[in-house]
Amino acid sequence: MSTVYTRPLGRLVEQLQRLPGVGPKTAQRLALHILKRPESEVQALAQALIEAKQQVGLCSVCFHLSAEPICDICRAPNRDNSVICVVADSRDVIALEKTREYRGKYHVLGGLISPMDGVGPDQLHVQPLIKRVSQPQVTEVILAISPSVEGETTTLYVGQLLKPFTRVTRIAFGLPMGGDLEYADEVTLARALEGRRELE
């Protein structure tokens, strides 16, 4: 760490830089901002970080982030149990929920198949998905996975496994190849859900 920072400030900048999308300048700006805030605010931030890390786990049904054994979406009585939307991770659930268009349930795979990174189907929540989809009340699975090389591989693999049990569709994309669901605007995502088509 550069000598331009006193050691505690340097450590703070270093830790902030570990966050995704935070470069050296942003980390410095955040660190200096934190130092200017009242101690009570900084304590509240630190406490929120610790509590989130300690209390947030995965839903035992859909594997979305949850502070309870079963998440709010899975417990909601007004959600459609016949449709399951499969996504790569919780960021995608959050993005799709912001559209207010989808009223079914979710299943979070926990990543994408990527042999280059040593991630195979066994590292993902595929088997629990098959178990859920084999239930007679499930009439459709929507694959909402970003259109990257790994995303396409995962979509085709999961789709083939689920086809014997139910109708499998994939969302239409107004996204470029390699685009991420979480960065798409709500209108694009809503149209992608409406324009979904059968997986070939």
Automatic annotation (TrEMBL):
Keywords attached to this entry: DNA damage, DNA recombination, DNA repair, Metal-binding, Zinc, Zinc-finger
GO biological process, one term: DNA repair
CDD domains membership: TOPRIM_recR
Start-end of C4-type zinc fingers: 59-74
Domain of life: Bacteria
Toprim domain segment(s): 82-176
A molecular function GO annotation: zinc ion binding
SMART domains according to UniProt: HhH1, TOPRIM
Keyword Nucleotide-binding: no
Keyword DNA repair: yes
Pfam families per record: RecR_C (PF21175), RecR_HhH (PF21176), RecR_ZnF (PF02132), Toprim_4 (PF13662)
InterPro entries (UniProt xref): DNA_Rcmb_RecR, Hlx-hairpin-Hlx_DNA-bd_motif, Rcmb_RecR, Rcmb_RecR_Znf, TOPRIM_dom, TOPRIM_RecR
NCBIfam families for the chain: recR (TIGR00615)
Summary of the function given for this chain in its UniProt record: May play a role in DNA repair. It seems to be involved in an RecBC-independent recombinational process of DNA repair. It may act with RecF and RecO.
Family: Belongs to the RecR family.
Protein name: Recombination protein RecR
Organism: Petrachloros mirabilis ULC683
Lineage of the species this protein comes from: Bacteria, Bacillati, Cyanobacteriota, Cyanophyceae, Synechococcales
